[in-house]
Amino acid sequence: MGFRRLLRLIAAAAMICAAGTALAQEPIRLRIASGQKPTATYIYLMQSFFVPELVKRVSERTQHKLVVEEGYSGSIVGPAETLEHVQSGDIDIGAYCFVTSLRICRCIRFR
Asked: Is the pTM value of this prediction over 0.85?
């Protein structure tokens, strides 16, 4: 076996190992939470549309797998604590509702 052939075999083995490592990547984990119940319209839409669409688009456009941990009804954060938990990094995406003097506003906050 020649020296060049040995180098080619080593290079091919390294590429196979690198490809295997890329395929065995850790999934991307997101924590989405709100202190409100899923009966609120914006929470229902997060559960039924936003999260499935996010998972679908990440899997279509990248090689990564997205794992979403959802916590509603105060299971991770309380109703008045959502923004603070996003700011501190306890959750990645938080949905909250606040009331102004004119109308009710619903927002989604991202870290």
From this structure: no
Residue 85: alpha-carbon gap to chain centroid: 16
Neighbours of 39 (CB within 10 A): 9
pLDDT tens, position by position, 79-93: 888 888 888 999 998
Angle (nearest 5°) at CA 21 between 19 and 24: 110
DSSP state of 58: H
Which domains are present in the chain?
Answer: 26-110 (3.40.190.170)
Give the containing element (helix H, strand E) for 43: helix 41-45
Q: Are 79 and 37 in contact (CB under 8 A)?
A: no
* Structure-block tokens of residue 62: 């990248």
- What gap in Å lies between CA 47 and CA 43, rounded to an integer? 6
**Greatest pairwise CA separation for the chain in angstroms:** 82
> pLDDT tens-digit profile of 20-30?
555 557 899 99
